[in-house]
Amino acid sequence: MGISVQKYNTFTFFKLPAAWWCGVRLKYIDKRKAIVIVTHKWANQNPFKSMFWAVQGMAAEFSTGTLVTNEIRESGKNISMLVMNNTANFSKKATGRITFTCEDGHLVKEALDKTIATGDGQTLWMKSVGVNEDGVVVSTFKFEWTVRLKS
Questions:
Q1: Which has the closest alpha carbon to 83: 63, 110, 99?
Q2: What pLDDT sits at residue 151?
């Protein structure tokens, strides 16, 4: 498997400091699923005393992006990745510890195999669902990732 949880969290400190300071942390990753947590606190709240939507977005995107990164690394190819679009739905006030889970890892290999075989860029939509400590969904994010071979 690609990079360890600890290495991803260290990467976050150096390359995504806003996410790190807001408390975004990878907790689990395998080929199929990634789990990211973030806890509501003063530094990541909005004026309504709940977690700012952008902090939720960082955690959700990180859960999808780690799966793409791992699969690219395992392919051994020089492949770029970029978010082209995203949607979000907020269904409950986000307070306490929020856990974002993406279970779309199986979609990544398929897209990478196509881009490697054809040389054409591919897109895929990945979903990350955020739940609070009671298991209630607080937000759902979808990200459209593009992958393509670099020249």
A1: 63
A2: 78
Long-range contacts from 69-73, C-beta under 8 angstroms, 24+ separation: 69/2, 69/3, 70/1, 70/2, 70/3, 70/29, 70/31, 70/105, 71/2, 71/31, 71/105, 71/108, 71/109, 71/112, 72/112, 72/147, 73/2, 73/3
Distance (Å, whole) CA 34 – CA 12: 15
Domain of 78 in residue numbering reads as 5-149
Asked whether the beta carbons of 14 and 21 are under 8 A apart, the reply is: no
Percent of the chain with pLDDT over 70: 99
State the total domains in the chain. 1
Confidence band, pLDDT 50/70/90 cuts, at residue 3: confident
Taking alpha carbons only, the member of 63, 11, 5, 14 closest to residue 36 is 63
Instruction: Kindly report the CATH number assigned to the domain that includes residue 34.
Output: 3.10.129.10
